[in-house]
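Case study B.
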Amino acid sequence: MRARPIQLRNLLKPISSPSLNRIHLQKPVPFSLSSSTQTSLNKPLIPKPFFKSDRYDGLVNRLCRDKKFKEAIDVLCQQKRLKEAIQILDLLDHSSIRPSAAIYSTLLQLCLQQRALEEGKRVHAHIKFSGFVPGVFILNRLLDMYSKCESLVDARKLFDEMTQRDLCSWNTMISGYVKIGELDEAHKLFEEMPEKDNFSWSTMISGYVRRDRPKDALELYRRMLRDENMKCNKFTVSSALAASAAVPCLQLGKEIHGYIMRTGLDSDAVVWSALSDMYGKCGSIEEARHIFDKMLGRDVVSWTTMIGRYFEMGRREEGLGLFSDMLRSEIRPNDFTLAGVLNACSNQAAEDLGKQVHGYMTRIGFDPFSFAASTVVHMYSKCGNIESAKRFFKGISQPDLVSWTSMISGYAQNGQPEEALRYFELLLKSGTKPDHITFVGVLSACTHAGLVDKGLEYFRSIEEHGLTHTADHYACLVDLLGRSGRFEEAEEIIDKMPMKPDKFLWASLLGGCRIHGNLRLAKRAAEALLEIEPENAATYVTLANIYATAGMWDEVEKIRKTMDERGVVKNPGSSWIEVKRQVHVFLVRDKSHPRSKEIHDFLDKLSMRMKEEGYVPDTNYVLHDVEEEQKEQNLSYHSEKLAVAFGIIATPPGTPIKVFKNLRTCGDCHTAIKFISKIVEREIIMRDSNRFHRFKNGTCSCGDFW
DNA sequence: ATCCGCAAAA
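Model:
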């Protein structure tokens, strides 16, 4: 930056004119020049940003001397040297040359490009005082400059002052409002404007889409169709597709698809990607893929979108397949792509694969300041490898909030709540501002550690950090109190909290009631929960388990009947384990695995050893009315046990085993795996839908506090 | 001018 004044000096030096001295005074040279020779003056302190700009300086000097100010400004603007270009206006003032629309237009265009509001205002002021009467073209440029700089108040002032406005003025004004999200103001103008073109319509439509008002967008699109003067172009069609994708409305999307084919608008890459995305968002992933395959000019974003779509639907194999296709194509994945793949690894707990992606990122040299770094932290911590997460985290020079939060909640879930809280303190020291999700991690750490009072303190401190309590925070608080049996306080909070308790809160409370056998409150929580989501089988099952533990079998039976009547289907529990980069999935009583016989034989043997060690099956966890002796058998074939057993026989002795379950683990399995970890002398890590359990030598990191 | 992509918890 320090090179600038020198350039200016060089540029102006050969000209002798009274106005030049003025500029010299305005721009003092920031270091001593007394001993410098002419040659050293010509050498810039830092490399000049533009090729051969020395020659251009000479050129500009000559142009100014010849009073060819317009040309001088053009040269400077081409080099994006806005500040110097504006200085030329001063030279102009002191000459007999009158400013022209062309000069202002060039300058404004550069201001607009660089979002330079201050400079733009200077040009505007110059126009006002130079006596130049701007035409609608220049005024539109000014409008555009203000609206691109998001200075809508200035834009509107100008707009209202304009004696004549053309279509472009209206459109510029509208798109300015749309850009800053003032859709209602934009819409007001939209209704007022004398005539609308494709731009007006598509700006409004896509504005509504982007601000999450897809219904308004569609309504507008329908209105546009009724307007006989309007013929859709690729812009309106694209925004209409985005609208039907956002609603989502497959039927309308298909209509637009048909329209596109009929009118030959299908030659545009953007239209194609909007089309593919519309099908993807409307759930027709096959159709989306079909269009993707036929699409010309697929870019990183289209690849990333398509890959992410598969992951969204849980179709991991296809997503990864497409990712490897991408690696073989000429398009390179970027941070978004990698983040998407890593995120899929996190959710599926595919650590080996995640490691590979991490390795790939290291090889191509990813930007350590990018959000992609945070997804690596998240991946390791979600895969239960908090050590790797920490190692990677420590290698980031300036971790972002997401990385911090991933570490905090990672520790909280992995049975090291003290470490989580330590990281929170470190975060505060680092000067990063926590957000509401960080506090969810902190509060859940307190919950896992049983630090009720400390949790209450953190809860109170949330507002001191300039944040407001969210429903999530209240859910954490109730979880905290409920798990340690402080139900009175929990209920008081529920009755007093400023928003309606959500399903997470009631589910937490129900969990607390299960631990402490609080039947009355369990009933209240379950009722509230069933009102919110009557189809969730987990609620029925938990409530039934609470009654079963209390020996109230009539109630259990009643719940079972209600479930049948309402047609509630239990979400099938499944567990999986990654062995040699292959994922093996197990369901209850699953016999489909190729090594099923071995697994079951092994479990039988294990079962005997466990009983010798003092394990007693807890049949309360069996909801359905099977015969007593059969219950025990059902238990031993729960998916998590199958996956653990397979892990043991498929890996060398001593290898830690990592199993993942889509639901919460059942209490009996939890006890059983504690025994297994001791018998086979393995560390067993299980991630259920709630947290991690690390079993080692007969105990679990959750301290049975789940 | 228009389209599409990431992230922390429960």
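Chain A has a mean pLDDT of 85. The remaining cases will be described in the next quarterly update.
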